[in-house]
Each structure stands twice: as C-alpha cells, then as structure tokens.
C-alpha cells in the first residue's frame, strides 16, 4: 500500500530541487561533455573527477543512443518473443505479462520518487487477471478485468487515509490503463489461429517506425517535431517513420492477409502516428517527473517502459484495424 506525503513541508525547497533535477535531465540528454562546457561558460567550477569520468565513458551516437547496445538488446528481445509465437503461442501472454509487470514497477517507482503513490498490489494482481480474461473471454473479459481492478485500487488505497487519495488513485488508474490494459490488446491479437502473423505485423511495423525515424532523423533531422517535449524528435524523422511504416503496412496486409493495398497504407500510417504519439507521451511523463529514463535494465534503450512507449498504444490500434481489415 502507498504512503502519504508529509504535510506542512515548505514548497520552495522542493521547487528548487525540482528545477535542478529538470536541468540535470536536460544536461543528460546533451551528454556529459556538454554539461562541462556549460559549467565552464557560466564560470562555475568543473569537478576534475567528473570530467575524467565523462571522458572515459563511451560516446553515444548522434541521436543520443548507444547504437550497438540498442541493436543487441532488440535482437535479444526478438529471439525471446518470436519463437513463442510459433512454437507455443499460448506462452506469449505470459511473456507479455512479465514485461508489463516490470514496466508497472518502473513507472510506480518513478512516481513514488515524485511523491505520488501507486497501489502496486492490486495493480499487479489485476494485470495478471487482465491477460487471463483477455485470453479466455476476449474484449468483454478485458473490460470486466479493468473495471474490477480499478475498484480494487479504490478500496486498497482507503487504508492509507484521505490525504493524497485522489492523486494516488489517479496515478494508479493511469498506470492501469497505460500498461496492462493497452498491452492486453497484444494478447487479443495473438489469440486467433493466425495470431502469430498479427503480432508480427504489429510489432514489425512499430519497429519500422522507430528505425525509420531514427535513421532519417540522424541524417536529415533539422526541424524539431515537439521541442517542448523532446529535442530528439524531428519532422524529418517523422517523415522517415511514415515512409517505413507505410511500406511495411502495405507489404503485410497484401502479402500476409491478402487485403487491398490501401488498407495496408492506412494501417502503416496509423501505426506511425500512434507510435510517435506514444513516444512523446512517455517523454512528457518523464519530463514532468524530471527523469531521463524510466530505468536501466535495457542498455541502449533505458528501462522497459522506454521500450514499451510506442508499442503499447499501437497494440490497441493494430487490433482494431486488423479486426476490421482482416477479420477472423
């Protein structure tokens, strides 16, 4: 259960610390060497030990990512997930559940640092129940599982008192909808007899969005897409995502599901937009919480949440579109 914040503490010091954390997060995005240059320009002392550590650290790519590590982690995840789709399809929901539970832990930990409590116990138990309900009863089971889990969160949080109740319940509800609910659509995707192809079409198109946006953004990126949220996203990178996703969507819908080309185009464009919005949404949460990454579990990516940010909303969009374009 969650714990309430101490009452009566002055807000000014917290605001000062928050400002320092936000500045630190921005500095992390620019890299350690830029932090030292900024300190030198402002006449501030530079810590020799910190400067030596920064010089010894491996430099990331132009887009701020350790590319070899990111590729290695991506291939490792593919090796873990793809065989489950073809060898024993029923194991896929268990893999998704483990990933989502860790994502819930990461997000709840980040919120706790900001003084926001998440009802972890009912959230974790409800997440497992959501996947079981989605597999056994489809969309109706998913909806019922979400409702029961939300009621459990409301009741669970009562034990910690009224102070911060609305804030904590809202954060728990956000986590519930953001992680297990959206991820459960991947379970709905894999359930039909051709579920492996549906999941691959969804996941591969999202990967095309990330890869296309990254490649074109690094080479051609000049105009920020949403500078208030993320300095790394550019309109040129978004154009690369659109082209890559449109191509993947047309290929998957025509060759795998034998649908007309324009349905594949719609599918690809919808995934490109949704993946970008999901990425920016998580960036907004991290900026609000004044953190750079949700975790460090995945080298080159950050935490599990930093890998799921574009996947989660796209799972729901892919399920809805494939249900309409290629019904079972």
Summarize the helices and strands and which ones pair or pack.
Layout: H1 11-30, H2 32-41, H3 48-56, H4 67-87, H5 92-113, H6 120-158, H7 165-190, H8 195-220, E1 224-226, E2 230-234, H9 235-256, H10 261-289, H11 304-308, H12 311-325
Antiparallel strand pairs: 1-2
Helix pairs in contact: 5-6, 5-7, 6-7, 7-8, 7-12, 8-9, 8-10, 8-12, 9-10, 10-12
Describe this structure in words.
- This protein is mainly α and 328 residues long.
- The chain is 74% helix and 2% strand.
- The chain contains twelve helices and two strands; from the N terminus they run ααααααααββαααα.
- A two-stranded antiparallel sheet has the order 1-2.
- Helix 5 runs antiparallel to helix 7 and helix 10 packs antiparallel against helix 12.
- The chain is globular and about 55 Å long.
- The two termini are 42 Å apart.
- Helices and strands, in N-to-C order? HHHHHHHHEEHHHH
User: What structural category do the secondary elements indicate?
Assistant: mainly alpha
What are the segments in which pLDDT stays under 50 over at least 5 consecutive residues? 2-61
- As a whole number of angstroms, the C-alpha radius of gyration is 21 Å
Count all strands and give the number. Answer: 2
Overall, the morphology is globular
Mean pLDDT: 82
Across the major sheet, the strand order is 1-2
Termini distance? Answer: 42 Å
Helix content: over 70%
Largest sheet: 2 strands, antiparallel
Beta strand %: under 5%
Counted by DSSP, the helix tally is 12
Short description:
It is built from 12 helices and 2 strands. With 328 residues, it is an all-alpha fold. α10 (261-289) runs antiparallel to α12 (311-325).
């Amino acid at each position: 259960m969650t714990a309430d914040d101490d009452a009566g503490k002055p807000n000014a010091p917290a605001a000062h610390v928050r400002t320092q954390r936000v500045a630190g997060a921005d500095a992390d995005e620019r890299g350690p060497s830029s932090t030292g240059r900024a300190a030198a320009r402002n006449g501030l002392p530079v810590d020799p030990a910190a400067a030596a550590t920064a010089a010894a650290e491996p430099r990331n790519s132009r887009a701020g990512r350790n590319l070899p590590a990111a590729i290695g982690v991506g291939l490792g995840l593919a090796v873990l997930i793809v065989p489950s789709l073809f060898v024993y399809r029923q194991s896929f929901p268990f893999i998704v559940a483990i990933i989502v539970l860790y994502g819930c832990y990461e997000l709840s930990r980040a919120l706790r640092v900001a003084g926001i409590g998440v009802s972890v116990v009912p959230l974790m138990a409800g997440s497992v129940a959501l996947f079981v309900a989605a597999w056994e009863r489809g969309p109706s089971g998913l909806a019922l599982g979400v409702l029961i889990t939300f009621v459990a969160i409301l009741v669970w949080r009562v034990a910690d008192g009224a102070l911060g109740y609305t804030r904590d319940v809202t954060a728990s509800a956000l986590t519930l909808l953001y992680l297990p609910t959206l991820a459960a659509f991947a379970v709905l995707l894999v359930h039909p007899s051709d579920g492996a192809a549906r999941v691959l079409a969804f996941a591969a198109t999202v990967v095309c969005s990330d890869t296309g946006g990254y490649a074109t953004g690094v080479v051609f990126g000049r105009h920020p897409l949403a500078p208030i949220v993320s300095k790394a996203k550019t309109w040129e990178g978004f154009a690369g995502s659109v082209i890559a996703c449109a191509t993947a969507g047309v290929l998957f819908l025509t060759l795998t599901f034998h649908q007309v080309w324009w349905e594949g185009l719609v599918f690809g464009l919808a995934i490109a937009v949704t993946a970008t919005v999901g990425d920016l949404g998580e960036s907004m949460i991290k900026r609000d919480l004044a953190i750079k990454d949700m975790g460090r579990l995945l080298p080159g990516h950050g935490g599990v949440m930093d890998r799921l940010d574009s996947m989660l909303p796209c799972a729901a969009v892919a399920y809805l579109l494939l249900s309409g374009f290629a019904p079972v």
